[in-house]
């Protein structure tokens, strides 16, 4: 049966257009806050459109009117039932001082998993190079690390001028983007139930362990510390944060010990995963600057003690920031 | 249509649409975007990024006057931000649409029908890192193929759907009106029988034919309205004066007029 559509549309059209206008207004400004009267009016119009849609669905299959109303009801449904909208504008300082460090602490289990996997990789890589020097060629992906550590140190320390002159900024940009890709890949691989993240964390640990043991066995521990500490003290935790995001995602996918359904679990961790990704990216911007502008300069140009001291200061500051910042604010870390 | 064909069509319909039932007891459905439309949108976006980058690269090139090193850094970071941030920025600014999605009438929506949050947009786009593996979005494509809601991994994690949005048009009865005398109105039993026998689907086909008449070749339009008129005339016996001297197209207008209007 087809209802008298002309009469029906003529009667209801004004109300539909009012609802449409309100929804358009809300869509144009995501931060718009409705007044009490506006909210009541929106709900009334939405309820009426819903009733009209139900009426059309029952008595008529007229597709144009139904499609139009379905679109309106769908948009109205999001506004009325959508819960709290993102009504507050993004505040960078609050995010930096509270949200990121709080999230970092709240997701401690995946962080520890990330950490211990990297440590396992470090041990494996270190032992491999210690007991089989040929393993270095297989493990180390960077050409400049393949030469004997003492040769490299001698070469670096004999450089009188600035080898990176005219290339530092570009180099720092490349480091930032490359490392950010690594961190984001570690997060994204969380969707492989964490297997990809696990491999990536372990592999990064293997490279780190192999390089460290290689330099330590060659008696170049001071050079190693002076070279790696200034940027590594920030870069390595940032990669760990990428892994933390990945394992947070994987934890929601696996849902071990959780009663919620998959979609609800993923939804619950989503803001934290995104926060961790942005946090890792931010740390890697700093690490990229330090690596290009400081780490590549060695004694006698820059004494190792200064570089190590800089790294230690950075480490203390980063540790304080991640472990203490935002603690006094309600809703902080558990 | 055989029973098996019907089952297949019902199955396809189920995978092409996603229904949301509201607490008010009504349901609305989303039409899921087909892989072909999504690939087209992706290609358009890829071209937009490439074109924007060629423009930006020229502007960044001006920085070489100050420092080639600085220009290199800005270029490296700029391309990374553009390639990663374009979809995030446009989907946030345009309520789930990039330029490519806009052109193809696609939209990213929350899979519960609620608001799309910034976190959802960021996560579904960051997960392109894994969806695009190992090449040509193979992982994402396979995930979408096997997903009931045609979701790639990014959509599953973010709880989003990519839907095809048909043009929203307010129902317009002017399409039916021609201002001419409706010969059917003089035969109320015929009108009553038509209202009983014509299905909504049949009425929709006739309506669509009228709405799109100007887009058709003359010969095709005449043939289509002849077929439609023959069909409707076959539904119920009609007095000669109902159809005599009335063109097939006008007859279809008359039929729709009596179907959708109870009185004049």
Topology (SSEs and partners):
The complex is a heterodimer of chains A (334) and B (264).
Chain A: H1 5-28, H2 36-59, H3 63-81, H4 92-106, H5 108-131, H6 135-139, H7 149-157, H8 168-188, H9 195-217, H10 221-254, H11 262-295, H12 304-324
Helix pairs in contact in A: 1-2, 1-3, 2-3, 4-11, 4-12, 5-9, 5-10, 8-9, 8-10, 8-11, 9-10, 10-11, 10-12
Chain B: H1 3-16, E1 17-21, E2 27-32, H2 35-61, H3 68-93, H4 99-103, E3 106-110, H5 118-126, H6 128-131, H7 138-146, H8 153-158, E4 160-164, H9 188-197, H10 200-211, H11 218-233, H12 240-243, H13 248-260
Distinctive features:
heterodimer, A: 334 residues, mainly alpha, 12 helices, 76% helix, B: 264 residues, alpha+beta, 2 domains, 4-stranded antiparallel β-sheet, 13 helices, 59% helix, 8% strand
Verbal overview:
The complex is a heterodimer of chains A (about 325) and B (about 260). Chain A has 2 domains: about 5-80; about 90-325, no CATH class. Chain A contains 12 helices and no strands. Chain A has helices spanning about 5-30, 35-60, 65-80, 90-105, 110-130, 135-140, 150-155, 170-190, 195-215, 220-255, 260-295, 305-325. The model of chain A has no long low-confidence stretch (mean pLDDT about 90). Chain B is an alpha+beta fold and about 260 residues long. Chain B folds into 2 domains: about 30-165, no CATH class; about 175-260, no CATH class. Chain B has 13 helices and 4 strands. Chain B has helices spanning about 5-15, 35-60, 70-95, 100-105, 120-125, 130, 140-145, 155-160, 190-195, 200-210, 220-235, 240-245, 250-260; strands spanning about 15-20, 25-30, 105-110, 160-165. Chain B has a 4-stranded antiparallel β-sheet with strand order 1-2-4-3. In chain B, helix 2 packs antiparallel against helix 3 and helix 11 (about 220-235) packs across helix 13 (about 250-260). The longest helix of chain B has 27 residues, at about 35-60. The model of chain B is unreliable at about 10-15 (pLDDT under 50). At the A-B interface, helix 1, helix 2, helix 3, helix 8 and helix 11 of A face strand 2, helix 3, helix 5, helix 6 and helix 8 of B.
């Amino acid at each position: 049966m087809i209802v008298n559509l002309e009469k029906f549309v003529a009667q209801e059209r004004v109300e539909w257009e009012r609802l449409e206008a309100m929804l358009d207004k809300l869509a144009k400004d995501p931060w718009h806050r409705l007044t009490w009267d506006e909210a009541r009016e929106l709900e009334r119009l939405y309820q009426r459109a819903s009733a009209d849609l139900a009426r059309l669905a029952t008595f008529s299959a007229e597709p144009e009117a139904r499609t139009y109303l379905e679109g309106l009801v769908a948009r109205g449904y999001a506004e009325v039932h959508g819960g709290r909208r993102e009504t507050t504008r993004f505040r960078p300082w609050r995010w930096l001082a509270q949200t990121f460090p709080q999230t970092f602490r709240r997701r401690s289990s995946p962080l520890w998993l990330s950490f211990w996997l990297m440590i396992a990789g470090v041990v494996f890589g270190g032992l491999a190079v210690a007991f089989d020097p040929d393993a270095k060629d297989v493990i180390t992906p960077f050409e400049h690390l393949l030469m004997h550590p003492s040769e490299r140190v001698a070469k670096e320390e004999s450089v009188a001028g600035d080898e990176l002159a005219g290339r530092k900024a570009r180099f720092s940009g490349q480091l930032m983007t490359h490392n950010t890709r690594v961190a984001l890949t570690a997060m994204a691989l969380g969707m492989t139930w964490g297997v990809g993240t696990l491999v990536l964390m372990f592999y990064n640990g293997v490279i780190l362990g192999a390089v460290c043991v290689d330099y330590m066995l060659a008696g170049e521990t001071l050079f190693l510390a002076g070279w790696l500490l200034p940027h590594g003290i920030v870069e390595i935790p940032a990669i760990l944060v990428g892994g933390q995001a990945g394992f947070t995602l994987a934890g929601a996918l696996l849902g071990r010990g959780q009663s919620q359904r998959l979609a609800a679990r993923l939804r619950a961790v989503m803001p934290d995963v995104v926060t961790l990704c942005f946090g890792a990216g931010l740390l890697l911007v700093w690490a990229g600057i330090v690596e290009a502008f400081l780490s590549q300069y060695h004694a006698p140009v820059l004494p190792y003690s200064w570089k190590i001291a800089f790294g230690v200061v950075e480490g203390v500051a980063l540790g304080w920031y991640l472990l203490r910042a935002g603690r006094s604010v309600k809703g902080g870390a558990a | 249509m055989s029973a098996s064909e019907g089952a297949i069509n019902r199955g396809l319909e189920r995978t092409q649409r996603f229904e949301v039932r509201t607490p008010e007891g009504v349901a609305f459905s989303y039409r899921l975007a087909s892989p072909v439309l999504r690939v087209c949108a992706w290609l358009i976006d890829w071209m937009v990024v490439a074109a924007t980058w060629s423009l930006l690269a020229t502007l960044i090139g001006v920085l070489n006057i100050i420092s080639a090193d600085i220009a290199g850094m800005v270029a490296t970071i700029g391309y990374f931000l553009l390639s990663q941030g374009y979809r995030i920025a446009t989907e946030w600014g345009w309520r789930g649409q990039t330029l490519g999605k806009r052109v193809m009438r696609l939209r990213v929506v929350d899979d519960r029908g609620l608001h799309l949050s910034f976190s959802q947009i960021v996560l579904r786009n960051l997960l392109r890192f894994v969806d695009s593996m190992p090449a040509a979005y193979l992982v994402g494509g396979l995930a979408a193929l096997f997903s009931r809601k045609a979701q790639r991994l990014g959509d599953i994690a973010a709880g989003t759907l990519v839907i095809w949005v048909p043009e929203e048009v307010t129902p317009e009865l002017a399409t039916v009106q021609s201002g001419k005398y409706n010969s059917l109105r003089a035969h109320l039993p015929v009108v009553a029988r038509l209202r009983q026998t014509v299905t909504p689907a049949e009425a929709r086909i006739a309506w669509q034919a009228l709405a799109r008449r100007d887009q058709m070749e003359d010969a095709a339009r005449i043939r289509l309205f002849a077929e439609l008129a023959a069909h409707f005339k076959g539904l119920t016996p009609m007095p000669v004066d109902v159809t005599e001297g009335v063109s097939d197209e006008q007859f279809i207008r008359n039929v729709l007029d009596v179907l959708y209007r109870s009185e004049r």
